[in-house]
Amino acid sequence: MQGPFGRRAAFRYRVAGFVLLVAHLSFVCWLTLRPVNVPWVSAATLEPLATIRADLALSPWSAARSIGGGLLLLAPLGVLLPLAAGRVEAYPLASLVRTAFTGAMAAMGFALLRSEVTGQIMNVDTVLLNTVGVALAHVLVVPAVRAWLRRRADRGRVAPLPRNDGAQAPTPTIPRVGIAPWSDVSSSSRT
Fold it and tell me: Would the keyword Transmembrane helix turn up in this protein's UniProt record (predicted)?
């Protein structure tokens, strides 16, 4: 997005992304870091996939509820982190890796904080599910939104009108590359 309107729009997207990111993280803190009154607390689960296997052994409803909750808790970060960064032109794989890594670190931070709260335990499966949820949300939403924003920005650009005075028009630039294409056409070299 170029020009004064494009910069303002990018700034608005970043501000909206940052505000929504802070609101979501505040909600997650409130939801997960509250003390829970329980008669007993099991030990921390540090074996990967142990809790998921136990949930699947109980019932499909219990498994869907706990796995779905784990996937959905931090999934909005998959969209809000790139929105707060405000990059429309980003390599998809690099964006996914950055977002998944940040989501994993946030999930790990919440898990470590939860282990200090009364009635809460550390569970490695929660970290795994939260990270997968962030990555899935990113893959499902961000590339499509970025493509839509690029098409919208390309539609806003106006091609220069041809000149009738015999002078050569300026060489158009390729929008996403930022350089002019090579051309051997010159009004003085051809006869």
Answer: yes
